[in-house]
Amino acid sequence: MTEKPIADHPLRYPLSNELHARPFPELSAPCRAAYLAIKQPSGAAKRDRALDRAHLITLLDRFGAAHPAPEATHHAVALGRSFLKWEMHSEFVSYTLYADGVEDHPFDGKAFELFPKDWLNEAPGVVISSVLVRMEEADFAKQAMPELSNKLSAWFVSESMTASYVVDNEAIVATDFRIDEAGHVRFAIIVNEGVSQRRLGRIAQRLLETETYMNASMLGFPMARQVADEVEDMEAELGAVYAHLAEDNSRDSEMLGELLGLAGRIEDLGSRTAFRFGATEAYAKIVQERITLLREARFEGRQMMSEFMMRRYEPAMRTVLSTKARLEGLSKRTERAANLLRTRVDVENAAQNKQVLARMDARAGLQLRLQETVEGLSVVAISYYAVSLLGYALGPFAPMLGLEKYQLVAGLTLPVVLLVWGMGKRVRAKLK
Asked: pTM here?
């Protein structure tokens, strides 16, 4: 087989600058695809994306293929006799190789030979999804469906095999969601004659996205199981706090401190799991949407992909979402308990403050009476010294008035006392 130009390639696919507008390849059955999704073990959303591009360029250089644009997040290019589609996602990168024709032995994995082992070993991350897709064409009007069903049964493990009509009965999709000895999940797509190349491309793309996002969403399941134990312990601690609230208020301040410590641990746990749980929820919705878009119908009594997901996949997602909801509910209940305790502590403090103010008011009354007593004594003392001074000052003039000195002092005493008392009253009035 001679290699053809991109424009005439049997697996027609838009070039990289058209990829955003046309996300689905145009495939001509029979053909096959090999798919890889690579993700960094941790911190994938904030990874150095230049490493992903460098890894892609290493592969392209082995085949002399064109490089992507410096800031490109997708690239499509002929790779030997196959066609490569590369996409950068929020947490992972995906490589899809399309090749015309199918193997004599189903799913022999020859398409993966274009992903060299040494190149895979140098990947900036780990493989989270590895898929083989076999695409054939058949005449559904002439093909005996039981015979086709037996053919699919020979390819997949019957216990977990799913097979269904999709996209208005124009294709049959089958898989068992099991990883083979080479580490690949296998899909078979058999399309009816006359189905457009674009529709076949959409079916293949949606199956690959279903498998990848299902694996990505399952990353939250181990975390949910681990977090569930911590949440259970924290719920027990919070239950003890509510029991205290219902019984007594002798240790409110101490319990409030313990509760604030518990709230801090809950928020720390929530911040550590928020991204993964949120990503799991988003990925699970994508999986559901992709399966819905396939518009499945039953084929020869086989279980459909949606039924398999409901039994094997949905419980894990419910566990993750349940753990997320428990953690959020725990945070809200802790906040309510903290508010109740804080209110009780505030009420207790207010009662104590009231008692303190009452004692202060009593002291203020005592101080006022003492002050009034002191002021009375002050009038007497000031008057005494004023009369004495006036006695000394006016004493020599007493004979001129025909008075004895003691008579002069006696006459001055009452006016001086009244004058001092009046001046003190005037000063207090001005101060008020």
From this structure: 0.74
